[in-house]
Design a protein that fits this description.
Layout: E1 3-4, H1 5-15, E2 28-31, E3 37-38, E4 40-44, H2 49-58, E5 62-65, H3 82-93, E6 96-99, H4 102-106, H5 111-118, E7 122-129, E8 135-143, H6 147-157, E9 171-179, E10 196-208, H7 212-222, E11 230-234, E12 243-255, H8 256-266, E13 274-277, E14 283-293, H9 298-304, E15 308-312, H10 316-325, E16 327-328, E17 331-332, E18 335-339, H11 341-345, H12 347-360, E19 365-368, H13 389-392, E20 399-402
Parallel strand pairs: 4-5, 4-19, 5-6, 14-15, 15-18
Antiparallel strand pairs: 1-3, 2-6, 7-12, 8-10, 8-11, 9-10, 12-14, 13-18, 13-20, 16-17
Helix pairs in contact: 1-12, 5-12, 6-7
Length: 404
C-alpha cells in the first residue's frame, strides 16, 4: 500500500512537533495535497531552484526542507516573483513542500543532535533547555463500583494520565471515605444527618497544567458525588531534553587544532570552510554545538564550562568579546569553531529521512540532496605576511583554519 503525503507529514510532525516552533517561524505544509500518494521524498536544507528541480527530476512527490520558503507574511505568490515562481513550479509538477525549522532545532533529537553525531560526540543534553511543560497531579476519591471506570475515562479524555506514548496512566489504592451530609445536601450515598463511611478508591493522575480546568470540569461532571473530594497538586519542574544546541563529549580529549580538522572532515565542504579561534594546543573534550546561527548562545556555552563551541555565522564583535572575557562562570571560555550555516544543518537531512524511513518502511523511498545550497561560492586567502607594517607589530591571536 502506497503512502500518502499526509502519512509522511504526520511522521515528521510527530518527530518535530509544530508546537515547538518559535512564534515568528513558519513551519508545516507549504503546498501539496495531503491525500495524494507519495512514492519518494527528497530532503534538503533550502528550497532553492536547484533543489526544486532535483525533486522534480527525481520523481519525488514531496520536498522536505529545513529552511522555510515563506518565512514572512505574504499577500500573494505570483509567478513573477522568485518565491512565487518556485511554488508555481512545484504545484505544476505535483510536488509538495514541507518545512521543519525551529521545531526541528528544539526537538529531541533535532538539528544539533545530528551535528553532534557527525562530530562523534556523545550527547548529554541541550545547551539551552526548553522549559518542560508544567505538570499537576489530581487525586480524587471514588466509591467502589462502576463509577471508578467512569471517572477514570473522563479524566483521561480531558488530558490526564498521558506520558509519552502512553495514555490512561493512573495509580489507585483502596481506603475508606467518611462524610456527614448536612441540611440542603442531596447525597448520592447516605442520608442527611447521618454519618457515612464508604469504601472508596483513591485515584491519582498527572496532567499538563494547561489542561487543569478541563480535567477538574470532567471530574465534577463524571463523579457520582454531589461534592467530589479532590486534591490538585503542582508538581516540581522537570528538566527537559528539548532545547537549542547540545552538549556532548569526545571519546578522548584532542588538541584544538585536531578538533578543528575533525569538524572540517565531518561536514560537507564549503567556500566558507571551518575557522577556529583559540589555542591550537588546548585539549578539547566537552563540546557544545548549535546548528545554524549560534552567537546568541555564546553566553550559554561559556556557562556550560565546555572546551569548545561549534556553530555557524559567528560575528566579529560577539566572538571577540567572548574571547576577551577569558574566564566565564563555567571556567575558561570555550574555543570557537565557526562553520558555514548550511553545512551545520545538512546532517539533519539524513536524520529527518530516517524518521520517514522508520515510520513508513518500504512504502516510500527517501533521499537526501547533496547539492550545496550554501550561498558562498568562492573564497580567497591572502598570501602569508600580506599585512601592513603597522599591523605587523600587533600581537596575533591564536587561531586555526581548516578547509574540507
Amino acid at each position: 500500500m502506497s503512502a500518502t503525503l499526509r502519512d509522511v507529514t504526520d511522521a515528521l510532525e510527530a518527530a518535530y512537533p509544530p508546537a515547538l516552533a518559535m512564534e515568528w517561524d513558519a513551519v508545516g505544509l507549504v503546498c501539496g495535497d495531503p491525500a495524494e500518494p507519495v512514492g519518494s521524498v527528497l530532503f534538503a536544507v533550502d528550497p532553492t531552484p536547484e533543489t526544486v528541480r532535483e525533486a522534480i527530476d527525481s520523481g519525488a512527490g514531496l520536498l522536505v526542507t529545513h529552511h522555510p520558503l515563506l518565512l514572512r507574511g505574504v499577500h500573494g505568490v505570483g509567478a513573477d516573483t522568485p518565491k512565487g515562481a518556485l511554488l508555481h513550479t512545484l504545484i505544476r509538477a505535483g510536488v509538495g513542500l514541507f518545512t521543519a525549522h525551529t521545531n526541528a532545532d528544539i526537538a529531541d533529537p533535532g538539528v544539533s543532535d545530528a551535528l553532534a553525531a557527525a562530530l562523534g560526540l556523545a550527547v548529554a543534553g541541550p545547551l539551552q533547555p526548553e522549559p518542560a511543560e508544567p505538570l499537576d497531579k489530581i487525586v480524587t476519591f471514588v466509591p467502589v463500583g462502576p463509577a471508578i471506570a467512569q471517572v477514570h475515562t473522563a479524566l483521561s479524555d480531558a488530558g490526564a494520565g498521558r506520558f509519552g506514548n502512553y495514555s490512561h496512566c493512573s495509580f489507585a489504592t483502596a481506603g475508606t471515605g467518611q462524610f456527614l451530609p448536612l441540611d440542603g445536601a442531596v447525597p448520592a450515598i447516605g442520608e442527611v444527618g447521618r454519618l457515612e463511611r464508604v469504601a472508596e478508591t483513591r485515584l491519582e493522575m498527572v496532567l499538563p497544567r494547561s489542561r487543569r480546568n478541563q480535567v477538574v470540569a470532567a471530574l465534577r461532571a463524571a463523579h457520582p458525588y454531589e461534592e467530589p473530594a479532590y486534591d490538585l497538586l503542582e508538581m516540581a519542574p522537570l528538566p527537559s531534553s528539548r532545547g537549542l544546541g547540545r552538549i556532548g563529549s569526545l571519546p578522548e580529549p584532542e588538541p584544538f587544532a585536531a578538533f578543528t580538522e575533525r569538524v572540517a572532515a565531518a561536514l560537507p565542504a564549503t567556500a566558507w570552510g571551518v575557522r577556529g579561534a583559540g589555542d591550537p594546543d588546548r585539549p578539547i573534550h566537552r563540546v557544545a554545538v548549535s546548528g545554524g546561527s549560534g552567537d546568541s548562545a555564546l553566553g550559554a556555552a561559556a556557562r556550560a564550562g565546555v572546551d569548545a563551541y561549534v556553530t555557524a555565522d559567528l560575528r566579529h564583535h560577539p566572538a571577540s568579546e567572548h574571547l576577551l572575557d577569558g574566564t566565564g562562570p563555567g571556567g575558561p571560555v570555550p574555543a570557537l569553531v565557526d562553520v558555514a550555516h548550511w553545512a551545520s544543518e545538512w546532517p539533519w537531512c539524513e536524520q529527518a529521512a530516517g524518521v520517514v524511513r522508520a515510520a513508513l518502511g518500504g512504502s516510500v523511498s527517501v533521499s537526501v540532496s547533496r547539492l550545496r545550497t550554501d550561498p558562498w561560492t568562492t573564497a580567497a586567502t591572502a598570501a602569508p605576511g600580506a599585512v601592513s607594517s603597522a599591523a605587523a607589530h600587533q600581537p596575533t591571536p591564536h587561531h586555526t583554519e581548516a578547509r574540507s
